[in-house]
User: What shape does this take?
Amino acid sequence: MGTWTKIRPKRIRMLTFDVTGTIVSFRGTLEEHYLGAANKHGVENVDSKKFADGFKRAYKETAKVHPCFGGDEISAKEWWRKCVIQSFRYAGATGIDEKTEEMIFQRIYSTFGSINAYEIFPDAIPFLKWAKRNELVCGVLSNADERYGDSILPMLGVTHDELQFQLFSKDMKIEKPDARAFTMAMRRGEPFLNNDEIIDPKHVLHIGNDFRKDFEGARRAGLHAALLDRYHETDLANEWRRRGALVFHDLLDVVEFLGRS
Assistant: This one.
């Protein structure tokens, strides 16, 4: 991670957001959802202490072989099937037949397509309504599959009325921190501006929670960027600040900051 000069934004007219950890939070733990599903089907030989690392390994490997949640190559559901099944294997689960693996996967996939696995941060909708009153165009730019836009965000009460455009890496076939993703987001948001103008990146603020993907990616594309320390990770947030990032606890802090800009 590099160190960046702090630049105070002026005349922000468009906001782009990451989703998970920025607007939406997971409900419950990974182990509760995954191991709970396995237990429902009689699978108990999974090492809960190894599962988080097993999942990270499977996720990283699946993303390397099938970037952007499969892009045009495979469906997002098939991508997650590969990742989920491999996660259990890395966590020590053995002797599970294909039928049981599929039932466990279907239960997990359904859970993560429902409101049972997510909750919206309480400041998100008030912030988006404030942005709309102030004629700021808002949109999503997320390394995720299309289910967020198709079902998860609407179930949580966030629609195109609040987020006028929504871009996901599965559809774009590129991921943050690639500068092209941020350029695509600006182009997608421009029709919602007055006079259908081409926006200057210096009038766009991206808000996320990952230094490399959100902050550095946005800054390299010429946008302003801010990070949210939603989970009060003080040491990490201080490191972000040391490297030049604007860091806020929540979106209400962003309102105050923009009001002074």
User: Anything to note?
Assistant: The first helix runs from residue 30 to 40. Residues 144 and 168 are 5 Å apart (CA to CA).
